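Form 12-C: Joint structure prediction
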Amino acid sequence: MTPPFGGVFVARTEVLSADDLKRAIWRMAHEIIERNQGLDNVVLIGLQTGGVWLAVLLGEALEEIDGNHPPVGSLDVALYRDDIGLRPVMPEAVTDIPVDLDNRTVVLVDDVLFTGRTIRAALDAIADFGRPRSVQLAVMVDRGHRELPIRPDYIGKNLPTRRDEAVDVHQNGVDLGEMQK
Amino acid sequence: MKHLLTLDDLGADGVREILDLTDTFVEVSERQIPRVPALRGKTVAWLFYEDSTRTRLSFETAAKRLSADTLNFSVSSSSVKKGESLRDTVETVSAMGVDAMVVRHSSAGAPHRIAGWTDASVINAGDGRHAHPTQALLDCFTLRSNLQSFEGRHIAIVGDIKHSRVARSDVRAFTMLGAEVTLVAPQTLLPPCLDGWPVKVSHDLDSVLPTVDALYLLRMQKERMTEALIPSLREYSAGYGLDLARAAQLPQHAVVLHPGPMNRGVEITGEVADLPRTVVLDQVRNGIAVRMAVLYLLLGSGVDLTTTGAQ
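Section 2 - Result
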């Protein structure tokens, strides 16, 4: 769920169907292989909580295309945020980095890219785990309104939104709507 | 939640929530760089009116791993020596803009009074014979790691219950979570009145040993032996000390805990202290993670424990 945290998401329009979502993941997987000339040293890290299952699906797609399954980890950035409290630490949101990140190519995976503050926090966290050769960013939806100089490398869908709207990415597609208290 | 004075500030659900959150901080503590910026810019002051090594080091490590700044205040080298009152000291430290005070005091209720004199969060790190909530939380976390659950488990607390704030907080915590507790001690080391304590009492350690899932040994407080409550430490060891023969009577899965510092040869022999089932060093490690969870909840999360039920 995108900020503001809390409240209940009410969908208004479907942006991507379940099939669209699968095709987007498939295309992003091809782009990752093309950009990195294979999957040597590539690690996928899903951001808790919305990016984790996407990273898993992306990992499966990569294996189907390339034959290699890259390591897939998860990262909870709640302790690195500059707006602590907006998204509390949830015990079930575990951080699990399965390999040493030194000299790897880390692909951060998240559901929605909005202000960029989560990614800023994730970059800080990654630096505490090692020194990757490069860090790339894959998001299912880029909804604009960036507050930091951060740009995704792989995008499922560019979606112009208003600030007060909310985007929900789930297994059956992507919806645009509002958060209601 | 603003202060942590006793476990009743948390309730059973709050205790469980802290134990769950502690898992997160155990993971942080195992990282190559065990430090997160969660409490950057926050200041925590230590007000220790009583000696402490491990609790203080543990809190200090916890605060540093969360990137908080810490202010040390040592009673022996401060204006307390010049006769400053507790209230004046608290108000002075408070005026320096601290976000939390971790208090240890020989008088029960001192942290409660201090909470009324400052806007900072107050964490009780032990007050008289009253309470030591973070010790109880780390004991619960250690037990949960070993026993998985508390429901129907039997825990015996052995030793100087009378003087022990650890025993009081542990009894509260263990029973709150559903365990059964037996206090084992000579009559003179039990509080004069146990009415309302949800515990059983025994004076015979050997009969209790085969029935427990965990044995919690308390430190014999040698400094209190002037009260002549037991004939001698040797006699205490003979009746209540855990040696290899007694440890063999414990069920296979049972663990042995001790809040430290251990008196090897008094309440526990050296051989037993070094057995794998003695989880004293786990308690120390878990203590840091539990205190990180407490500091984070009070200072960093912006979350009120009482309102998170909906999440």
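Section 3 - Comments
Residues 8-180 of chain A form a domain with the Rossmann fold fold (CATH 3.40.50.2020). The mean pLDDT of chain A is 92.
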